[in-house]
Amino acid sequence: MLYLLRIFRESWDLFKRRKIITFANIFITFLMAIFIFLGIFSYYFLNESIEYVKNRLDFSIYFKDEADKNDILKLKNIIESFQNVERVEYVTKEEALVQFQQKFISNPVLVKALNELKINPFVDYIIVRAKTPEAYDEIAKYVENSPYRAIIDFLTYSENRNVILRFISFSNYLKFFVLIFIGIILLFSLLIIFNLTLLSIYSQREEIEIFKLIGASNFFIRTPFIFSNFISSLIGFILAEILILIILVRTQSFWTKILYSFNPLNYYLGNFWTINLAILGFILISVFISSLIALQRYLKV
Amino acid sequence: MIVFKNVTKIYYPNITAIDKVSFEIKSGEFVILVGRSGAGKTTILKLIRKEENPSHGNIFYKNWNYSLMRGKEVTILRRKIAIIFQEFKLLLDRTVYDNIRIPLEILGLSPKEIFKKTEEMLRLVDLWSHKTVLAKHLSGGEKQKLAIARALSMNPEVLLADEPTGNLDPISSMEIVELLKSINEQGITVILATHHKDIVNYLNKRVITLHQGRVVRDENPGKYTLI
Lengths: 301, 227
Fold this sequence. Notes:
Chain A is of the alpha+beta class. Chain A has twelve helices and four strands; from the N terminus they run ααβαβααβαβαααααα. Chain A has helices at 2-17, 19-54, 69-80, 93-103, 108-117, 133-145, 157-202, 205-213, 218-250, 252-258, 264-270, 272-299, and strands at residues 59-63, 85-91, 125-130, 152-155.
């Protein structure tokens, strides 16, 4: 116990004495934490944006006026049985009329024009919402070739198809690039941490040699270096977290304005431990491995 | 106590530092290694502390065969065989007190024992009044005294001194020599590597003379003679 306490004291002492190295360690860890968070944040932002747009994707099947309601219900059941279908809503022409009237209740010109028609100009239709954008193509193909094609007037999918497919392709590319971006950030973080650790240990090489000289074990020499690097990394990380939290609180309303469902602060607080343990874990493991590799060279006395 | 049997050390690519060196040093002896620069004095000291491994031959300390020693045993060996250098090798950014305290902490002594031992060692070398001074602010002679105090604080059985007076003025040099002499009188084996003629002749102890990595003379007591 006393031995461990001494190692901790040595670590703290090392942390205090290596002022420039300590400052550089704190600063670099601070930047790394910010960059890693930006990577996570970008991925989340992209996912949310894609989900937001996806949730607005659907297509409707409009039926001919003479279509039998039983046939429409049969088709609805068939589409509902598809694996990737999230929801199928059947809107009768009567319901469509009511919905239209309610929507445009404040527009007397439209309501008057509708009343003057004396007939219901709407038709029965079903709205299909799939779990993935890719599923729309599959459902549309089925509907186009089904025995119920005769009662179908038109599908809105064919009008939106290109937009949907482009969106799918774009979102997949974007996700891929964001993942590469995060990977590059992690790689650079690792290299910077490694080089900084190497530099900090290089600057202490004489001290390491002296410790070996006076009979210190590798554990006694290695641990204070690793711990003092941990302390600086932890401080840099905490500072970064404080800054991130301030930015998230201050920009909360801005994000909500851009994208209704997007709230990075809620996301951050909701995943507080996962995000922070992942970032801190990455930094500390990098520091640990870098310190071990860098120290090994000077411990071979 | 320390036995060299036909020890050869060849550095890469093909530099022979010592060649078939054999000698035995008994416990409590004061041995002086003399020779020109590059004669192999420092190599012998490094081999004794197992900072280097011999290319050929065997080294023994008591009943330990160096070729069979591993990590932990080497650490223990280095605690038993302390060393001081011409360039002191102190923790310069630490206080005089810390330079003694840290090795004692490594040994696992209690805080009370550490304080007692540190005070004893610093008083021995007359540096107790400087205990709060940073080591870098000491004079050359004081630095070497501190290095000796640090080495002694670990209760070594052997003290190796590699040109300890090389950076010191004559008065400081004599102070260090007297200190080494008194340390030896307390029963600690001292091996001094030097090319300081006056010191060798003054000490009147066993002298092993090296020339181009070979032992050319081993006399007890011996005088300074270079080949």
